[in-house]
Amino acid sequence: MMYGYGFGGLGLLWMLLFWVGVVVLIVWGVRQVGGSSTTNDAGNRALEILEERFARGEIDADEFHRRRSELERR
């Protein structure tokens, strides 16, 4: 029986694929909006640590500049 919908088995499959696509798009959109700053935050934190080590005298100026230029390339 078709229960008045007229879809049949193939229509049900298309409906399922449609809703899976909607969910995938929503998840992708949320990740694009919320997850974009994690890499930048990690780079900023690495630079802060480097500056703290330089301020404490753990590394010299040459080492500081070399490591900072390496971090800025990433």
From the structure above, extract its key features.
74 residues; 3 helices; mainly alpha; 0% strand
Task: Describe the protein.
With 74 residues, the chain is mainly α. The chain has one domain (22-73). Helix content is 80%, strand content 0%. The longest helix is centred in the first third of the chain and has 27 residues, at 8-34. The relative contact order is 0.07.
Q: Gist?
A:
This protein is mainly alpha-helical.
Task: State the separation between the terminal residues, measured CA to CA.
Answer: 61 Å
- Into which percent range does the helicity of residues fall? over 70%
Number of helical regions: 3
Number of strands: 0
Q: What's the average pLDDT?
A: 84
Largest sheet: none
Q: What is the C-alpha radius of gyration, as a whole number of Å?
A: 26 Å
In one word, what is the shape? rod-shaped
List the uncertain runs. Answer: none
Tell me the number of structural domains: 1
Q: Order of SSEs, N→C?
A: HHH
Structural class: mainly alpha
**Percent of residues in β-strands:** under 5%
Topology:
Layout: H1 8-34, H2 38-56, H3 61-73
Helix pairs in contact: 2-3
